[in-house]
Amino acid sequence: IMKKIITFFAAAICVSLIAMPLYAADIAKIATVNMQKVLTKSDSGKVAQAVMIKEGKKMRSDLEKRGAEINELKEKYDRELLVMNKDKREEKQREFRIKLNDFKILEKKNLAELKELEKVHVGRIHKEIIEVVEKIGKKEQYLLIVDRMAVLYAPNQIDLTDRVIKEINKKKKK
Questions:
Q1: What pTM value is reported for the model?
Q2: Residue 161: exposed, middle, or buried by beta-carbon count in 10 A (0-12, 13-18, 19+)?
Q3: Is the pLDDT reported for residue 138 higher than 80?
Q4: Which residues does 66 contact at the CB level (< 8 Å), separation at least 6?
Q5: Strand partners, 33
Q6: Which range has the worst mean pLDDT, 46-55, 70-79, 157-166?
Q7: 85-94 — which CB contacts under 8 Å span 24+ positions?
Q8: To 10 degrees, the CA torsion angle through 39, 44, 48, 49?
Q9: Checking phi first, is residue 141 left (phi over 0); if not, alpha (psi -120 to 50) or beta?
Q10: For a Cys staple, 39 with which of 45, 48, 55, 123, CB 3.0–4.6 Å?
Q11: SS3 of 31, please?
């Protein structure tokens, strides 16, 4: 019985040594993708950036307009301060505080809307990137494809970023 057990383990070791190079070949198929570069360089990413810049400019313009109104109101208050009675002064101060508070609320709202817009666009593009990377990974039997930003060192030969950008752009044109 002991001889059979030793023979079995020896056979198992031989089989595993023969199979190891086959397994090692799969391990070598690793690649990286720079997600940030794909987000900024792909056509989808450029469109998303343009939309966010346009919305940001529109929001900034509205805030600048309201900021100018508040400054004008403050200057008018400062000029008329000496000739105002107490009730009028308190009324103007209250009006100024309300406008300033409305401005701050609008500023926070605009920032939240911009962040949500960015989240939607980046999420959509991220989904496209994942689909393309999975397609390449399955087609070419990659064991692992990781974000380049999460890797301390990787040679440029295993970087698929430009290829992913081309695939996403090609997919959009269809």
A1: 0.67
A2: buried
A3: yes
A4: 99, 102, 103, 106
A5: 147
A6: 70-79
A7: none
A8: 60
A9: left
A10: 45
A11: strand
- Report the alpha-carbon distance of residue 139 to residue 133 in Å, rounded: 10
Percent of the chain residues past pLDDT 90, beyond the cut:
53
DSSP string over 36-47? HHHHHHSHHHHH
Amino acid at position 69, single letter: E
DSSP-assigned states of every residue in 96-137: HHHHHHHHHHHHHHHHHHHHHHHHHHHHHHHHHHHHHHHHHH
Long-range own/partner contacts, residues 98-101 (CB < 8 A, 24 or more apart): 99/66, 99/69, 99/70, 99/73, 100/70
Mean per-residue pLDDT, 147-170: 90
Residue that is written with structure tokens 């397994």 in the block: 23
Token representation of residue 37: 């570069």
Q: Which tens digits make up the pLDDT trace of 74-123?
A: 888 888 877 888 888 888 889 889 999 999 999 999 999 999 999 999 99
AA identity, residue 110: N
Decide which of 68 and 22 is more confident. Answer: 68
